[in-house]
């Protein structure tokens, strides 16, 4: 009932905003009003058929309250895909669970997690001395927390592993949060404006932390924001048992409700989308035919609203906004500029190191090897972490309360996405220019000089583009902070009077001109001049390394953008010296991983070593290796292994990712089986990659390739076949379990 009510109101907003967005898109197409031309090239397909990262970690299974070893693969679309073990991944068995991390927070402390859990159900706090809701067998937990969906608990063996996995998980969250495609020039702005208008109709202004994920996830968050407090007040007092059990039950209830909301939301939103798409051709025809009349009508409406609103808005800006613009801008600029400077430094260092290594180690073969690594630099979570960390310094402090900014995470993640994009643009431009030069070079000296010359050329382009990107980011962030504040301030005196302006819009154009949108444009104009001036003055300060607006680079490389339109460069294939092209399956098998696997320099234990049972037992045919069941067992195993003999011999036979080669070769071949419902954790929606592959040279079979359209959790059937889609829960027998969410 709640979902139907919220979606009914939202879909009305969406239909209204769809017409406005379509008009703006067509008008932009006809008139054109682009900003400065980018100097760097933009890669069309940033990462394809690559694995960001893979490795072992422990996962806590809530259904049977046991820790199990899992092999986690992060494909190019940043979904987390968990397998029973590495062998299951190599043998193309279906994964245990797939996780879409949109909306999640990465916690590295059990205390942090317990604090959030205690706050989620007020009045239910375990007494001191009682067992907490979660015990971790090591000192290095990694917890994925979500305000509505289920939580995921992992742990690793060393602090180094924890840091690396944390960087990987944060990159997954950052990517999945940015789930609304910016390539869509109509649907995306219509959706985000509809969400904003809906929340403003409920007197909710300011930034919203849960505007993350794809459209269905965002709408599910919108419903849960209203539904969860009602559920908590109704169900919370009726929960029975100890405090820990009540907390655990509440998390499960919230997750179950979130899944139900997601299914209903997806159906209703898809229906609204289909209806708008059906009406689009007729609407677009009307816009193109009557463009001039629509523009004239809108300008007439804007002039009337401006006369009514602008005097009040200017007073509000002068008294409540203008004095704080420079403070907000300075708070934004310092960490952002440091982050982009770090991107430049990391790029410079990687290329310089590559140049030295190529000269010292020899020729083209080494160049190909290093260029394959460099081409994925922007998608290396660990190497990019030093850039991303600069944004952690962003604090608006007193300004945050004044302007009703719930959190700075929105601005941090946006800046970090810009950093990654600029790094990839710089890398792609560099490899394109170098690829063009290779045919003309004679010997190592020429190669070294050419790399240095191209690097300097790309850095100049990076400085210009990063300046443009940052100035745009600052303007957008200032508007995002100040406009909701102004709208809230002006609402009591202005919003009630807007209805009288509706009669100024011709009925034929009512789908493309909205009074509410025009009113917001007038309010934006009232503060835009001050924001533009503040950013312009900031560009003069050398410490931020910004170009002035008067500095414009026009066609400095007229032929460069033509190079970017060619086929992507495959360094390994083009310069490998193979007479015949590799088959697609072999190429997938050899696909390299962006982040190198963890090699524990501190002499940590292999994960598979912890899977040995306490007493020797004959394994059942087809059964996977057993796992320690309790915290105490894992700790005992750790103590025994750390004191065990033959350590040096084991080190030689250990695989790079920390698995034991002898145990893998001796273990029986696992067969695909149907796990019980208790063994299979549910998951949030994800679109795992196709063709993701481990970098191990011993892998001879392609990995499982889940469809990008699949969501939720997949479980292997006997024979390794995939179950049909069942969006409504699970079957009694557990066969064909497919939870779509």
UniProtKB/TrEMBL annotation:
Ranges of compositional bias, category Basic and acidic residues? 636-646
Stretches assigned to coiled coil: none
Q: Which PROSITE patterns does the UniProt entry name for this protein?
A: PH_DOMAIN
Lineage, top-rank taxon, reads: Eukaryota
Stored Gene3D superfamilies: Pleckstrin-homology domain (PH domain)/Phosphotyrosine-binding domain (PTB)
Tell me the ranges covered by the PH domain, including all copies: 50-174
- Locate the region Disordered: 570-606, 612-631, 636-741
Q: Which InterPro entries match?
A: Niban-like, Niban_1/2/3_dom, PH-like_dom_sf, PH_domain
Q: Which family does it belong to?
A: Belongs to the Niban family.
- Protein name per UniProt: NIBL1 protein
- State the organism named in the record: Aegotheles bennettii
């Amino acid at each position: 009932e709640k979902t139907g009510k919220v979606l009914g109101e939202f879909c009305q907003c969406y239909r209204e905003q769809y017409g406005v967005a379509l008009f703006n898109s067509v008008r932009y197409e006809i008139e054109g009003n682009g900003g400065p031309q980018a100097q760097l090239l933009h890669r069309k397909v940033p990462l394809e058929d690559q694995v960001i990262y893979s490795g072992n970690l422990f996962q806590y299974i809530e259904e049977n309250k046991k820790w199990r070893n899992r092999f986690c693969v992060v494909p190019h679309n940043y979904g987390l895909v968990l397998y029973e073990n590495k062998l299951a991944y190599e043998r193309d068995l279906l994964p245990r669970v797939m996780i879409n991390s949109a909306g999640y927070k990465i916690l590295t402390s059990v205390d942090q997690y317990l604090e959030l859990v205690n706050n989620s159900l007020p009045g239910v706090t375990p007494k001191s001395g009682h067992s907490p809701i979660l015990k971790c067998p090591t000192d290095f937990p990694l917890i994925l927390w979500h305000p509505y969906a289920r939580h995921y608990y992992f742990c690793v063996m060393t602090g180094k592993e924890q840091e690396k996995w944390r960087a990987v998980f944060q990159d997954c969250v950052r990517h999945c949060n940015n789930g609304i495609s910016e390539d869509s020039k109509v649907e995306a702005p219509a959706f985000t404006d509809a969400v904003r208008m809906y929340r403003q109709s409920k007197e909710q202004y300011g930034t919203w932390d849960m505007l993350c994920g794809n459209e269905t996830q965002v709408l599910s968050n919108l419903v849960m924001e209203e539904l969860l407090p009602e559920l908590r007040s109704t169900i919370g007092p009726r929960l029975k048992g100890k405090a820990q059990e009540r907390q655990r039950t509440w998390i499960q209830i919230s997750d179950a409700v979130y899944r139900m909301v997601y299914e209903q939301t997806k159906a209703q939103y898809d229906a609204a989308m289909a209806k708008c798409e059906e009406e689009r051709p007729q609407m677009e025809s009307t816009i193109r035919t009557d463009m001039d009349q629509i523009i004239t009508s809108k300008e007439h409406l804007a002039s009337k609203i401006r006369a009514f609103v602008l005097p009040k808005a200017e007073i509000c800006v002068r008294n409540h906004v203008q004095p704080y613009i420079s403070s907000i801008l300075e708070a934004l600029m310092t960490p952002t500029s440091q982050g982009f400077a770090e991107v430049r430094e990391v790029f410079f260092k990687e290329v310089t190191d590559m140049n030295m290594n190529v000269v010292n180690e020899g020729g083209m073969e080494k160049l190909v090897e290093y260029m394959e690594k460099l081409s994925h630099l922007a998608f290396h979570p660990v190497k990019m972490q030093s850039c991303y960390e600069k944004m952690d310094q962003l604090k608006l402090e007193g300004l945050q309360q004044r302007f009703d900014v719930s959190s700075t995470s929105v601005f941090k993640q946006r800046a970090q996405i810009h950093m990654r994009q600029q790094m990839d643009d710089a890398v792609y431009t560099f490899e394109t220019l170098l690829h063009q030069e290779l045919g003309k070079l004679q010997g190592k000296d020429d190669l070294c000089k050419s790399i240095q010359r191209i690097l300097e050329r790309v850095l100049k382009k990076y400085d210009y583009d990063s300046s443009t990107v940052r100035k745009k980011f600052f303007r957008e962030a200032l508007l995002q902070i100040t406009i909701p504040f102004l709208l809230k301030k002006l609402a009591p005196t202005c919003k009630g009077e807007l209805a009288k302006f509706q009669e100024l819009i011709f009925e034929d154009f009512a789908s493309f001109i909205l009074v509410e949108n025009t009113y917001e444009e007038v309010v934006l104009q009232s503060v835009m001049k001050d924001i533009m001036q503040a950013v312009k003055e900031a560009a003069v300060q050398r410490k931020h390394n910004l170009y002035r607006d008067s500095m414009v680079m026009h066609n400095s490389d007229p032929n460069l953008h033509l190079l970017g339109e060619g086929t992507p460069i495959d360094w390994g294939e083009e310069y490998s010296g193979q007479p015949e092209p590799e088959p697609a399956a072999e190429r997938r098998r050899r696909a390299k991983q962006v982040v190198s696997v963890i090699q524990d320099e501190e002499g940590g234990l292999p994960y598979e070593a912890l899977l040995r049972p306490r007493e020797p037992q004959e394994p059942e045919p087809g059964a996977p290796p057993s796992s320690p069941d309790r915290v105490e067992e894992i700790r005992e195993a750790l103590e025994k292994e750390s004191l065990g003999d033959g350590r040096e011999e084991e080190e030689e036979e250990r695989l790079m990712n920390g698995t034991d080669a002898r145990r893998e070769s001796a273990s029986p071949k696992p067969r695909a089986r149907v796990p019980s419902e208790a063994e299979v954790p549910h998951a949030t929606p994800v679109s795992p990659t196709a063709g993701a592959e481990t970098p191990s040279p011993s892998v001879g079979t392609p990995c499982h390739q889940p469809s990008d359209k699949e969501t939720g959790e997949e479980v292997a059937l006997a024979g390794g076949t995939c179950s049909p889609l069942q969006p409504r829960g699970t079957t009694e027998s557990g066969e064909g379990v497919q939870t779509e969410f």
